[in-house]
């Protein structure tokens, strides 16, 4: 893909805000290991600079979704000659086991996978964490019995080193009782497994704000380190800052007459003579059609997105003549991401994860 450096549309990432968020989470969990979640290109913030910043801050445990992401992160470690641990959430195909390094931990969430792997001819030692399904019903071993069998299977094969155990919360943002119930289930499983795990972890971002995981010595925050995924009122209370701001520019400004239409499908009609501006971002960038009718912030004014969002550009109604070249905030200090998500009827995770690599990322240290 062409490098996105010649278009005045950019995602600005504040690395100080990232550090602030990680330090804040760490301050709530002083004795616990933080495994920041860097999957999906660090929730599309750019895994290179995000990982580098966290490494410089002394973080040495990370989590990712799959083998490809582990390989990419390992390249960053190798370049900087860093020793760090990577937890991989997803399954690894048997034929790829040989690629797994000794500083990576694989998730063991299925008895069938473990049994199949034991039959497979590989010689590298695999460090693993068991995943227990405590109520999310996505990945994970489902009962105490199944978890016991999985542990026994792993311990009977010296190619496996069982380092950790974890579960994942489904409703930590909305249901404290439900989350406590998941934590209690996990605690019970732990209690009945006669094994000293080096790493025990449950909490995601919202779990990190609750006091439900006393038995854990680690946590896996993702969204919160990017300053998303928590309730709007919690930002101020906990001092969490959104790290990404999306900007573009007015590239053309023109006047249209009352009754004229704008864009594909002519879905907008000017109620009076109006100034409009063209902004070079569209649905190919992940700036979806649902943004029509929402607002962007330009030089002190909230300006409505009018007409259908195009593939590479969109139009806004201006309060009057504005100079081409002026900066447009799509989200940032005047329009928080949670507001964008609310207005689009989705979650802020999705808004950032939809932002295409075509949008240049810039990093403020
Ligand atoms: C297993 C696991 N742990 C932790 C996280 C981080 O969750 P959050 O971004 O809500 O903190 C995720 C993300 O979905 C996950 O899948």
TrEMBL record:
<feature type="binding site">
    <location>
        <position position="311"/>
    </location>
    <ligand>
        <name>substrate</name>
    </ligand>
</feature>
<comment type="pathway">
    <text>Amino-acid biosynthesis; D-alanine biosynthesis; D-alanine from L-alanine: step 1/1.</text>
</comment>
<dbReference type="Pfam" id="PF00842">
    <property type="entry name" value="Ala_racemase_C"/>
</dbReference>
<keyword id="KW-0413">Isomerase</keyword>
<dbReference type="InterPro" id="IPR029066">
    <property type="entry name" value="PLP-binding_barrel"/>
</dbReference>
<feature type="active site" description="Proton acceptor; specific for L-alanine">
    <location>
        <position position="264"/>
    </location>
</feature>
<dbReference type="GO" id="GO:0009252">
    <property type="term" value="P:peptidoglycan biosynthetic process"/>
</dbReference>
<feature type="active site" description="Proton acceptor; specific for D-alanine">
    <location>
        <position position="39"/>
    </location>
</feature>
<dbReference type="InterPro" id="IPR009006">
    <property type="entry name" value="Ala_racemase/Decarboxylase_C"/>
</dbReference>
<dbReference type="InterPro" id="IPR000821">
    <property type="entry name" value="Ala_racemase"/>
</dbReference>
<dbReference type="GO" id="GO:0008784">
    <property type="term" value="F:alanine racemase activity"/>
</dbReference>
<protein>
    <recommendedName>
        <fullName>Alanine racemase</fullName>
        <ecNumber>5.1.1.1</ecNumber>
    </recommendedName>
</protein>
<feature type="domain" description="Alanine racemase C-terminal">
    <location>
        <begin position="243"/>
        <end position="364"/>
    </location>
</feature>
<dbReference type="GO" id="GO:0030170">
    <property type="term" value="F:pyridoxal phosphate binding"/>
</dbReference>
<dbReference type="InterPro" id="IPR001608">
    <property type="entry name" value="Ala_racemase_N"/>
</dbReference>
<dbReference type="GO" id="GO:0030632">
    <property type="term" value="P:D-alanine biosynthetic process"/>
</dbReference>
<feature type="binding site">
    <location>
        <position position="138"/>
    </location>
    <ligand>
        <name>substrate</name>
    </ligand>
</feature>
<dbReference type="InterPro" id="IPR011079">
    <property type="entry name" value="Ala_racemase_C"/>
</dbReference>
<keyword id="KW-0663">Pyridoxal phosphate</keyword>
<comment type="similarity">
    <text>Belongs to the alanine racemase family.</text>
</comment>
<dbReference type="GO" id="GO:0005829">
    <property type="term" value="C:cytosol"/>
</dbReference>
<comment type="function">
    <text>Catalyzes the interconversion of L-alanine and D-alanine. May also act on other amino acids.</text>
</comment>
<dbReference type="Pfam" id="PF01168">
    <property type="entry name" value="Ala_racemase_N"/>
</dbReference>
<feature type="modified residue" description="N6-(pyridoxal phosphate)lysine">
    <location>
        <position position="39"/>
    </location>
</feature>
């Amino acid at each position: 893909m062409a490098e996105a450096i010649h278009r005045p549309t950019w995602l600005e990432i504040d690395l100080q805000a990232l550090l602030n968020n990680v330090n804040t989470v760490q301050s709530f969990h002083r004795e616990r290991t933080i495994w920041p979640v860097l999957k999906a290109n660090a929730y599309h913030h750019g895994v290179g600079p995000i990982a580098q910043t966290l490494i410089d801050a002394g973080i040495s445990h990370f989590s990712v979704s799959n083998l490809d992401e582990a390989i990419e992160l390992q390249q960053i470690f190798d370049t900087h000659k860093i020793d760090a641990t990577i937890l991989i959430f997803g399954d690894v195909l048997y034929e790829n086991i040989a690629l797994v390094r000794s500083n990576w931990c694989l998730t063991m969430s299925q008895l069938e996978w473990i049994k199949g792997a034991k039959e497979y001819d590989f010689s590298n030692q695999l460090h693993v964490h068991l995943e227990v399904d405590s109520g999310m019903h996505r990945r994970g071993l489902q009962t105490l019995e199944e978890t016991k069998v999985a542990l026994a299977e792993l311990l009977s094969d010296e190619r496996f080193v069982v380092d950790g155990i974890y579960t994942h919360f489904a409703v930590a943002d909305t249901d404290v009782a439900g989350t406590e119930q998941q934590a209690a289930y996990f605690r019970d499983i732990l209690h009945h497994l006669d094994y000293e795990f080096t790493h025990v972890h449950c909490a995601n971002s919202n779990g990190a704000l609750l006091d439900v995981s006393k038995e854990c010595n680690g946590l896996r925050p993702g969204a919160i380190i990017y300053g998303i995924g928590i309730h709007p009122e919690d930002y101020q209370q906990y001092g969490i800052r959104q790290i990404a701001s999306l900007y573009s520019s007015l590239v053309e400004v023109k006047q249209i007459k009352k009754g004229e239409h704008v864009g594909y499908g002519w879905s907008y009609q000017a109620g009076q003579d109006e100034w409009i501006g063209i902004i070079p971002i569209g649905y190919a960038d992940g700036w979806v059609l649902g943004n029509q009718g929402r607002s962007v912030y330009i030089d002190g004014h909230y300006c409505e997105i009018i007409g259908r969002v195009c593939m590479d550009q969109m139009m806004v109604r201006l309060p009057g003549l504005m100079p081409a070249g002026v900066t447009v905030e799509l989200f940032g200090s005047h329009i928080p991401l949670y507001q964008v998500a609310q207005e689009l009827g989705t979650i802020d995770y999705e808004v950032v994860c939809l932002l295409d690599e075509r949008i240049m990322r810039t990093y403020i240290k």
